[in-house]
Specification:
350 residues; mainly alpha; 2 strands
């Protein structure tokens, strides 16, 4: 790369070239950087710490190191979850929580079939169970802990506000307030598990999502648990495209039933005015096989591919903000209630 070439030839490497190189590395997932992105950080700190006309590589590298130290806590993605382990660690099966997650996905993969998903659409998309506002739905989540989550076991409203505030920190300003609200509402579909809604099974509500009606991709977590799924033995559903056309678009694809799809449907059927980017964040934030595993591109259209960028930006704040550091709900409440009023009706059908 540019830096290695310069080190070998002793060519002058100005700070702009270095930062562009690092930003390109970020976009190709070469290394982990913070939620603001290293290009944005460079613009904010370059005048303070980077020499205007570097004479040698050592000077530029020193400038880069200095910039990296500025606001270090703000810019680096954490490497440990709330339990001191790595994020989304599905390889180990030792702790009670890890065993719970493993069993959860076994049940999930064996039962989330194409036919089951059709049944859940008919069951839930009548939206006749309750009439309530967004904040009321968030308060219901205080009583719910996600059994599929290996990174946190706090009530869900804590995670909602952690995610929302992560988005707000990464993308400040009114022009991105839709992303702040997407962070707050993204998991509200988990109210399906609440007794008020009939207490839906968690394996039919939470966890990663993936397409049904076509072959399961190895990028899906715990792929070994598909062995007993009926669809894997059904010739209608076990080929690359299955029931779909090439590049048909994700809007035409059926996914495992869960809180993502339910909340998306609640949004659009209640005339929510959040932009398309926010809709994709809510609908596909659990589709890790796509936004992290780069699978299922053969079903995506151009709009889907363009929106994956925003899903990935959102994911940084969904996954890496999970911690036991509690947020001040009452202090944040007025800001998010204002956004709810801006983008949602006062009451919604659920």
């Amino acid at each position: 790369g540019t830096v290695i070439q310069a080190l070998a030839t002793k060519e002058t490497l100005n700070s702009t070239t270095l930062w562009n190189f690092l930003a390109d590395a970020q976009s190709s997932n070469s290394f982990e950087v913070g939620t603001m992105g290293i290009r944005e950080e460079s613009e904010r700190h370059q005048q303070e710490v980077a020499p205007k006309n570097a004479d040698n590589v050592d000077e530029v590298m020193a400038a880069a190191d200095a910039a990296a130290e500025v606001d270090k806590e703000e810019t680096l993605i954490p490497t440990e979850n709330a339990f001191g382990g790595s994020f989304r660690n599905y390889e180990e099966n030792e702790t009670p929580l890890q065993k719970q997650v493993n069993q959860f996905y076994k049940t999930h993969h064996e039962n989330q079939t194409y036919e089951f998903v059709q049944q859940m659409h008919k069951k839930w998309l009548t939206l006749d169970r309750k009439v309530m506002g967004i904040w009321e739905a968030a308060e219901l989540l205080n009583e719910i802990v996600d059994e599929s989550d290996p990174d946190l076991d706090l009530p869900q409203i804590e995670h909602l506000l952690q995610t929302a505030e992560g988005c707000r920190k990464a993308y400040p300003g009114e022009e991105y307030d839709w992303m702040h609200l997407a962070g707050f509402i993204h998991d509200l579909g988990k109210v399906m598990t609440h007794p008020v809604f009939g207490g839906e099974e968690q394996w039919a509500t939470v966890g990663d999502t993936h397409p049904v009606g076509c072959a399961f991709d190895p990028a899906i977590i715990f792929p070994q648990h598909f062995a007993n799924c009926p669809d894997i033995h059904d010739s209608r559903y076990n080929t690359k495209y299955g029931v779909y056309e090439p590049n048909c678009g994700l809007d035409k694809v059926h996914f495992t039933w869960g809180h993502d799809e339910y909340m998306y449907q609640v949004m659009i059927r209640n005339n929510c005015t959040l932009p398309k980017e926010a809709q994709y964040m809510v609908r596909f934030h659990s589709f890790y096989a796509l936004h992290t595993g780069n699978a299922y591109d053969h079903l995506c259209n151009d709009e889907d591919r363009a929106m994956v960028h925003w899903i990935r930006e959102f994911n940084k704040n969904d996954l890496y903000t999970k911690s036991y550091e509690k947020v001040n709900v009452e202090e944040l409440k007025p800001y998010y209630q204002g956004l709810i009023k801006k983008y949602f009706p006062e009451k919604l059908n659920w």
